[in-house]
Amino acid sequence: MSDVGAGLLERPGAGQDPRKREQILDGARKLFLAEGFDAASMGDIARAAGVSKGTLYVYFDSKEILFAELVREEKIRQANAIFVLDPGDHDVVGVLTRLGRAFVGFIVQPKSVKASRGVIAIAHRMPEIGKDFFSLGPRRCTSRLGEYLRAQVEAGILDIDDVDFAAAQFLDLAQCTLHKPLMFGSTDYPSEERINKVVDAAVHMFMKTYGRANAGPQPADVRQDFGA
Fold first, then answer.
1. Which of 18, 28, 37, 128 is most enclosed, with most CB atoms within 10 A?
2. pTM to 2 decimals?
3. Could you tell me if 77 and 49 lie in one domain?
4. pLDDT tens digit string along 165-212?
5. pLDDT tens digit string along 163-173?
6. Are residues 30 and 75 in the same domain?
7. What is the total count of domains within the chain?
8. Residue where a domain stops, chosen among 41, 61, 81
9. What is the per-residue pLDDT across 27-57, written as a single tens digit (0 to 9) for each?
């Protein structure tokens, strides 16, 4: 086979060039953050990404699908960065505290709030996007935390009948009063101090419910704040 023929075989097909795809995603990400989902058109996205509109449609059929892909990648990065838990680490209080603060710190960022709002806004037209978001976000995070909790139950640190339910409980407690107002339009983003206080309370409540006597001490400030 000639060198020219070999070169043609090595070239990615239409819509398969990973560099071009990432170029489009980067442009769309910046535009969505700056203008919002509804205000951005496919033409706007093409200009922001530095590609033709025809090229854009080769890679993504609609801005909804493009947006869903951005959210999907972000959720995978979130899970891989935050929910990497060592089942051999039996300092449950420390693990949950670090996890809770990192998790809540991520979901209350303006870009995360905008992404969640965007998914909800289009889920009624494209339910599969909403389902994918839930599967890659809340469900995956709950599953990974559940695996860690299961290891602690087996080690005799925790006493839990349903680890997935307990994991979901903790993640909900950790974001209580912080995330929901933002989803409904609040611009009062919580401070690090406020996040830490809510997460510490969530850890305290979780350990009161599921901790055994050998689970380790609670943080002193939490015991004082909540009357332990």
1. 28
2. 0.74
3. no
4. 999 999 999 999 999 999 999 999 999 999 999 999 999 999 999 998
5. 999 999 999 99
6. no
7. 2
8. 61
9. 988 888 777 777 889 999 999 999 999 999 9
Domain that holds residue 216: 69-225
Of 122, 114, 123, 120, residue with least CA distance to 30: 114
- Mark whether 15 and 125 lie in a shared domain: no
Q: Which of these, 101, 107, 22, 105, lies nearest to 69 by C-alpha position?
A: 22
CATH of the domain at 123: 1.10.357.10
* Residues 116 and 203 grouped into a single domain: yes
- Sequence-distant (6+) residues with CB within 8 A of 192 are 105
Task: Judge if 24 and 41 occupy the same domain.
Answer: yes
The residue to which tokens 């909790």 are assigned: 149
Q: Which residues of 119-142 are buried (b: 16+ CB within 10 A; e: fewer)?
A: beebbeebeebbebbeebbeebbb
Helices (H), 11-109: 18-35, 42-49, 53-59, 63-82, 92-107
Do residues 119 and 68 touch, judged by C-beta distance below 8 A?
yes
Do 100 and 196 contact (CB within 8 A), yes or no?
no
Sign of the Cα pseudo-torsion (188, 206, 203, 72, in order): negative
What count of residues does the chain have? 228
Q: Model confidence at 15, in pLDDT bands (50, 70, 90)?
A: low
The whole-angstrom separation of Cα 48 and Cα 19 is 15
